Amino acid sequence: MKANVESRRLPDGALVLAFSGRWHTGQPTPSSSDVQAMLTGSDVQRLQFDGRRLDGWDSSLVVLVSAVVDHCASLGVDVDLDGLPDGARRLLSLSRAVPRKADADVAQDQPSLLARLGERGLLAGQTVRDTLDFTGELALSVMRLIRGQARFRSVDVLETIQECGWQALPIVSLISALVGLILAFMGVVQLRQFGAQIYVADLVGIGMAREMGAVMTGVIMAGRTGAAFAANLGTMQVNEEIDALQTLGVSPVDYLVLPRMTALVLMMPLLCVYSVFVGILGGMVVGVGAFDISAIQYLTQTRGSLTVTHIGIGVFKSVIFGLIVAMCGCMQGMRCGRSAAAVGNATTSAVVIAIVYIVVADGLFAVLTNVLGI
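The structure assignment produced for this chain is given below.
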């Protein structure tokens, strides 16, 4: 039933507003101005409400009644709320329990451009200091690990290896196979113009081994494992579990960060090699299935083009990318604020920063290998 409001006068001069129908947000309801017009210019001394014919209501009814009550206060009309539903009366009383601030509608002055630039500069400086502090703490933790003095549970390392190891194989397999397919399609379309379709095996093999295997694995782990690290540690920060470790004299970097970083750095080379293998198979599917290249020819050409140097460069990159993902995820989690929103912001920052650093590091590797001739 459509929302409606009707007015009727009582012999004693009171005006009764009778609500009927369903009053729900998103559905057409009478406006407060229409209801206020019933009061303007009349000799009403008292206003009453009748909600017996309401089929349902939500905040839209409370908002209208509140506006009408305010209008009655400006006209000096008494209001009787007894005819409203009990829930509506309670919501109205709650909304008026705290007086409105006098300066609530005063617009806040916007800081100047110079002030905003200064704030951004201070924030950037603080971020650099936090990064250097965390890197130093992590370096000291690694030294304690080398000396056998780091305090953490070996079961944490094994659990993290399981999480970022074989549990990541499905998504790594899917992305690597698709990347191999894409490289093969892009390469063979150009190579067949010269009758050199067979060299698509070289393109896919070297591209996956040197670049795409490590990069795609790093990006996948940044979105999967790096985000998980930031969320886990951020939640511990909100629950003050990290403060409890410090109170007990246990280094949070040793106990929380070092196992995660160790596990991810150990698993990244294996995932990278697996990604290269799956990418080559994906390229072979295209070469064999669409361009009349036999599987033996494709594998033979791939084996001849790949060298230990190509694979070694990709594996070395994967180690660095794993270190980047672990550091970004753990640092954002350890530096998280004390609210649920801060955990979400830390997770987002961990993924974005890790991917940016991976791309930058890969660009530096490309320049360095070109200069060294490898």
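Interim note for the steering committee: The chain has a mean pLDDT of 85. The first strand starts at residue 4 and ends at 9.
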